[in-house]
Design brief:
Distance between the termini of chain A: 35 Å
Strand order of the largest sheet of chain A: 5-4-3-2-1-9-8-7-6
Largest sheet of chain A: 9 strands, parallel
Largest interface: A-B, 39 and 38 residues
Distance between the termini of chain B: 46 Å
Number of helices of chain B: 16
Helix content of chain A: 40-55%
Number of strands of chain A: 9
Structural class of chain B: alpha/beta
Radius of gyration of chain B: 19 Å
Helix content of chain B: 40-55%
Shape of chain A: globular
Oligomer: heterodimer
Strand order of the largest sheet of chain B: 3-4-14-9-10-13
CATH class of chain A: Alpha Beta
Order of helices and strands of chain A: HEHEHHEHHEHEEHEHEHEH
Number of domains of chain A: 1
CATH superfamily of chain A: Aldolase class I
Radius of gyration of chain A: 17 Å
CATH architecture of chain A: Alpha-Beta Barrel
Chain lengths: 272, 404
């Protein structure tokens, strides 16, 4: 039962800290290209040593996402993936996947599922938390309470544009970790990491002792290392989804495992 | 005349959280939240600033052509044989629709905020043209996102925007219509937020947009109220307007909300039938959810995925409705109904033939409902219909519908 497991995210970050290592968070869209594939991909990420998996719930209108994740969403929706079907499959996936899993979703699918039903089903299924990309702290009280009641972590986002007041609110409502957006814009691979990461991470530290993960635009091992100089973990999304789009059909989960292992080596390979 | 001429209080919503009752609010990616707060502060300041209001009033008069006439449609009235019908001629405004009211307001505000670039979405192209026009007038760079399907069916407006110096970006994701154009516009805004203002074209989006866009269109109802009192000596019995996002309708309705004797009717796009995906009648086929920043009625699947919509009118072809309408619907203050593509096309043809006015297909939805209701109303009753736009842009659609 999920409730008897101590918080997976907290323990994972504690372990990392005890070993003076930094973490790797990886995003993939559930159901891309279909839910059977997702099982193998989750296992591949787990074998590659990913510290937290963000499992994307596909949405018809992913307005915070760039073209790579939009296409993944479309593939997942075409294969009939819904929040309900994802939650039905998680218990089976949990049998073999050790890494913490948080759901990454837009608000409307969760709202239609029902906040209480969502929190209860997610906890029951073995999910560790959620990040709702268009649910801002000011609209999140009910959601946070219900998630807490089911011992689920709530990850909120802070951006370079966030004022100190907003940063503080996001930090207060977050548990597990706080997610910093490296730059303005949608999700997607970029060739350079924004100079704004360091000052944002420094500001965030003033408001929280939670682990800090930095994402948006991070796609290479070098970028993972660069970001980790300022944070406890790097988040890689579009680059992994892109790899799934390019290589999954020919290379299967092994191809993705290889790609992510390279990122993980950059992330956790050497004590920082 | 008596008490009818004393203006009752209009509602003071939304509250500080941008809620109209339970509807509205602010659901947006975090990167947009600081700019949205900045916009709210700038707007709240401008709203009370006589200089801003004077500049807006000057442009509405000298550039856009306000006030617009309230025209007694006598031949249409005689033809239908019931209530007296007046048309609020927003179609006579510069750029051909009510949209310019809001674009001038937001354009001035963007300039005041030091923004140099404007992005907008457009469905029928009326909002895009109005935005492009204001950007040219104020010397702002302008990019308009438009669904591929809408670009094809509203081609004249694409050419107008280009001529005005705006870059029109074709959106080929999702349904290739207004909803996806908004997604793309938001993606642009979140990327270029430092110098860019998102010029939302309807009473949609996160707070303060629904409030701000309503305020900029309120002038429609303020003028109509004064004009009908002058010409008929009493308030109208019924107001009627089409509802896509809901900006022209809320603009007409707002100053009459507290006039208990004035009924209000919002007309949505019934499309080609009641099946999900075949229409854009949110109040008959939708239920509350979150889309594009606001909690409101949304056409969606049981799993919370946003549904496809259809309407012959690109401006009404959208799965959500402004949150203030959702609250007016809940209260029963405004009645919402819908008419089919065919009824709208027929209404447009009728108005063209009996009054010499070619309405936009959006506005023709309101007319179509009035054509149904006027005959059974007494002759002393008064209906004011918002003729929100002109129909030149729709000639291609009339042609393919076999009407020409």
């Amino acid at each position: 039962m999920a409730s008897t497991v101590t918080n997976r995210i907290e323990s994972r970050f504690r372990e990392l800290r005890e070993n003076s290592r930094k973490g790797l968070v990886v995003y993939l869209t559930a159901g891309d290209p279909d839910l059977d594939a997702t099982e193998g991909l989750l296992q591949a990420l787990d074998r590659a040593g990913v510290d937290v998996i963000e499992l994307g719930v596909p949405f018809s209108d992913p307005l915070a996402d760039g073209p790579v994740i939009q296409r993944a969403s479309e593939r997942a929706l075409r294969s009939g993936t819904t929040l309900r079907k994802i939650l039905e499959r998680v218990p089976a996936w949990r049998q073999t996947v050790q890494a913490p899993i948080i759901l990454f979703s837009y608000f409307n699918p969760i709202l239609q599922f029902g906040l209480e039903r969502f929190a209860a089903s997610a906890a029951q299924a073995g999910i560790d938390g959620a990040l709702v990309v268009d649910l801002t702290p000011e609209e999140a009280d009910d959601y946070v309470q219900r998630m807490r009641a089911h011992r689920l972590d709530t990850v909120f986002l802070a951006s370079p544009t966030s004022t100190d007041a907003r940063l503080e609110k996001a930090a207060q409502l977050s548990s597990g970790f706080l997610y910093l957006i490296s730059r303005t814009g949608v999700t997607g691979e970029r060739s350079e990491i924004a100079a704004g990461v360091k000052p944002l991470a420094e500001r965030a530290r003033r408001f929280t002792s939670l682990p800090i993960a930095v994402g948006f635009g991070i796609s290479t091992a070098a970028q993972v290392r660069e970001v980790q100089a300022h944070a406890d973990a790097a988040v890689v999304g579009s680059a992994v989804v892109h790899a799934i789009e390019e290589y999954y059909s020919t290379g299967g989960p092994a191809a993705i495992e290889q790609f992510v292992s390279g990122l993980k080596a950059a992330a956790g390979g050497k004590p920082v | 005349m008596g008490t009818q001429t004393i203006k009752p209080e209009t509602p003071t919503w939304p509250d500080a959280r941008g809620r109209f009752g339970e509807f509205g609010g602010r659901f947006a990616p975090e990167t947009l939240m600081a700019p949205i707060e900045e916009l709210e502060a700038a707007y709240c300041h401008a709203r009370k600033d006589p200089e801003f209001q004077a500049e807006l009033a000057r442009l509405l008069k000298d550039f856009a052509g306000r006030p617009t006439p309230l025209f007694p449609a006598e031949r249409l009235t005689a033809r239908l044989g019931g209530a007296r019908i007046y048309l609020k001629r927003e179609d006579l405004l510069h750029t051909g629709a009510h949209k310019i009211n809001n674009c001038l307001g937001q354009g001035l505000l963007a300039k005041r905020m030091g923004k140099t670039r404007i992005v907008a979405e457009t469905g029928a192209g009326q909002h895009g043209v109005a935005t492009a026009t204001v950007a040219a007038l104020l010397g702002l760079e302008c990019v308009v996102y438009m669904g591929e399907e809408d670009m094809a069916r509203q081609a004249p407006n694409v050419f107008r925007m280009r001529l005005l110096g705006t870059r029109v970006v074709s959106v080929s994701s999702g349904t290739k219509t207004l909803k996806d154009a908004i997604n793309e516009g938001m993606r642009d805004w979140v990327t270029n937020v430092h110098n860019t203002h998102y010029l939302m074209g309807s009473v949609l989006g996160p707070h303060p947009y629904p409030m701000m866009v309503r305020d900029f269109h309120r002038v429609i109802g303020q003028e109509a109220r004064r004009q009908i009192l002058e010409s008929a000596g009493k308030l109208p019995d019924l107001l009627c307007a089409c509802v896509g996002g809901g900006s022209n309708s809320i603009g007409l309705f707002y100053d009459f909300i507290s006039d208990a004797g004035v009924k209000m009717l919002g007309v949505e796009a019934g499309g080609r039938g009641p099946k999900l995906g075949d229409h854009a009648a949110r109040f008959s086929g939708g239920h509350p959810g979150v889309l594009h920043g606001s909690y409101t009625y949304v056409l969606q699947t049981d799993d919370g995925l946003i549904s496809n919509t259809h309407s012959v009118s690109a401006g009404l072809d959208y799965p959500a409705v402004g949150p203030e309408h959702a609250e007016l619907h809940r209260q029963g203050r405004v009645e919402y109904t819908h008419v089919s593509d065919k009824e709208a096309l027929d209404a447009a043809s009728l108005l063209a033939r009996v009054e010499g006015i070619i309405p936009a297909l959006e506005s023709a939805h309101a007319l179509a409902e009035v054509i149904k209701r006027a005959p059974s109303m007494l002759r002393e009753k008064i209906i004011v219909v918002n003729l929100s736009g002109r129909g030149d842009k729709d000639l291609g659609i009339f042609q393919s519908a076999g009407i020409l």
